[in-house]
């Protein structure tokens, strides 16, 4: 643990003047995630300047289930988004637009069977949809910011993602 903290401090001190990259993570409330148990986002970004950046994210969209055990699906995806930030002192308002490559895997039961246990039939789907959103961040230091984001994607006939997280610049 001490080695990790020391490495982070050295990284920040060496790159204190450039801050061209960001690493971040967020916990997410997703309306796809029926149980609200563990949706999250991990992102890396390249900052072209104070206003424009590009972000790559891994998003765990969650688990969707019908509640009675007849079907259950997990979804995740990778997003690439362009971001425009408008800095206001220690705050920044931003808008995002990009594409989400998603994958959904799970099972459904053959509901018309009367024998128990019912057979679980595996199912999967994937695709690419638009993702867009807005957010606000607050800089705690020159290298660390907290953020609140609202994203929406066309995945699953529209999925809303509300996130709270942090970004570390280096």
Automatic annotation (TrEMBL):
<protein>
    <submittedName>
        <fullName>Putative outer membrane protein</fullName>
    </submittedName>
</protein>
<dbReference type="InterPro" id="IPR011250">
    <property type="entry name" value="OMP/PagP_B-barrel"/>
</dbReference>
<feature type="domain" description="Outer membrane protein beta-barrel">
    <location>
        <begin position="10"/>
        <end position="156"/>
    </location>
</feature>
<keyword id="KW-0732">Signal</keyword>
<dbReference type="InterPro" id="IPR027385">
    <property type="entry name" value="Beta-barrel_OMP"/>
</dbReference>
<dbReference type="Pfam" id="PF13505">
    <property type="entry name" value="OMP_b-brl"/>
</dbReference>
<feature type="signal peptide">
    <location>
        <begin position="1"/>
        <end position="18"/>
    </location>
</feature>
